[in-house]
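Appendix B, record 7
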Amino acid sequence: MGALAVWVDGGREPSGWLGGCAGFAIALFAARRGRRSARAIAWGFAVVVASLGAHGHSRGLDACSSIGEMACAIGACVAVVRIPPAGGLVRAPVSSPVAGVVVIAAAWWLAIVASIPPRRLGLAATDEPPLAWAVVAAVSSMAVLFGAALWTSKRRRLELDVAERGRAMGALLVTSLAASCLIGVLGRIPAETVSRSGVAVASALVGGVALAEDAVRVAHLTRRLVVLAIVGGGVALLGASAASGRGWDAWGVTLATALVALAIGAAAPGLEAPLRPARGAWIDAFERAGSQTSRGDPDEAIREALLALRAPRGPAASSPELWTLAPGCSMTVDAAGYLHEREAELPEGIVRLALGEPEAALRAEVLDALEVKLPELRTLSRWMTDRGAAIATVIASEGEIEGVLVLARGSRDEPFTLEEVRGLRGLADRMAAPCRARAMRSRMLARAREEAQRAESSGDTVERLRHERALDVGRDALATARLARPATVGIYSAASRMALESLERRTALGAPIFIIAPSGVDPVPYLARAHLAGRRREAPLVLVDATSVREHDLARWTQPSTSPLALAHGGMLVLLDGAALPGELQQLVARTLAEKRAPWERPDALDVQLALTAVASPAELEAHGQLDPSLAARLADAHGSPVVLPRLRERGDDLRAILTDRLAREGLRRYGRPVGIEQAAYARLVDYPFPGEDAEFASIVRRLVARCVGDVVRAADVEDLHLPREAKGRKDPLTA
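Structure tokens (predicted):
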């Protein structure tokens, strides 16, 4: 095409060469475009640029230029109809560009046919090609592009980027049409050239808007271009008109025009402010709110940000809401600037849906439009409607959701634009830091309160456990004292004192104990009294009757809840007649005490003092195979020096005190009053040897009280028992 333009001018005009080079560069640029519509627009624009460089007239050049304009218009139409969706809940409806393409192609083919030499069509020859066909094709192309942009924007109005691109395309088409008309009327450029270049430029602009990746940047550039075209173009036309026909004086007008154009360029940001969405009130509010998020105090940062978001709708409007997830609460700010917080939970699914929307912003208009088709959105739609909310955006940082920022609709009728939503997205990103800091502080305070409450409850628990422990110790002490009571009466004889002192020494040391108790002598009172005097007196005293078959169950000894070893931890384990235990149990006890490790899982060592009673010495029991060697080894020095409890006949000094005590207690039990004994009756009992030891002594006391008439046991009562006498009587200790 560049070669044709140069050939038409005979190679004498530099504009032909310049146009050809420019067209060739644009063609190379078109070859690198990925989408077909982009290549078509760029190729057609290259053809038009190359054709405009020629000064001469050629019907072939006009036909090629028409083909280029047709390619531009068709590519732009296809690009407008097939704007890719941005994702989210809104599904882009399928549209076809066939109708627009057919209209554009038909109009330009008529113009192309009109450009063919008439003699080739069998028509009358004319000097000039019909201009009307080119103008009609240009107007038709502009109308189709405008209609495609309007139709796409209307059908896909819920898509933020499509709506943004639609407004930009409409503004560019109107500006291009106005500029073309103005230049065609006031300028010196031929109308055909103006129409061709206007269609090419408009198609390139519209196609660029439809194919651009960033719709917000498109909006910024469109506003700047429209402002410069309106204001700067007017100044340029005014300067050109003033300079026309002035000869050498035109340089002053040109200089003044250039200075005014520079001033307009410098003031372009201010001039385009009225064209911003909602005159830029929300965009500026987002920037002011974002600047407040850098404050050190997160509460102060959130308060100032929410207060800045109230400004676009005035102090009487409802406050924006900041919802946080952990802890769940809703924060608002009143007109006076006070932050209010209440516990609240976001509705289920709002965060998930918002994350799937463009810029992570869920709009109420989308929910209202889709709640009939998607019933699961009705709950969220009602929630947004009840709060008068227009948009809710997710506040997240590094993949962690911090909260949701909700803006109320208020008196605003127009929907939020993509530029505003992106500004809100930027604000949400900047609010993530104070929200996270506040959440961390809230969680720390909550944990501190929980720990304080836990410490307080732990203190109460400790006090309760201490009280229960004291009660348990008291109960154990009372039970042990009850067992030790018989050993607290009548401990006067040397034999009794020696046995008791020996036991107390061993319990004070925590050493093993072996007691030889003759049949009928109860060792429990002695052990109980010694335990109360030892260092383990607050620990339990566990008695195991080895003669009971129940105590022979090995499983019972290996269970932490029933084992006597577990119950005796920290205290004393008494094996009454311990040699009667089975060998495996004796080995289990010996191994456990040696290793200080329980037969079950236990975090601490097992601490038990062993006491074992029998009617014979350890050596005799080992000799007869009754005492396992491992258990005998655990007796240590007690194996060679057992404690021998005295018989009742050996406790002459204790007999009267024991008899008096038991008669009094039995009398209280039977008659409700204590019973005594006269001297003659006591003298008769002293002569009796009590072969059955304590058991027989207790039986005689009960029989005497039962025979007693009155409050004193008489000698006749004793005689009635027919107790045998010893060959040699014993001396009354009271008369000794």
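Remarks on this record: The chain is about 60% helix and 10% strand. The radius of gyration is 56 Å.
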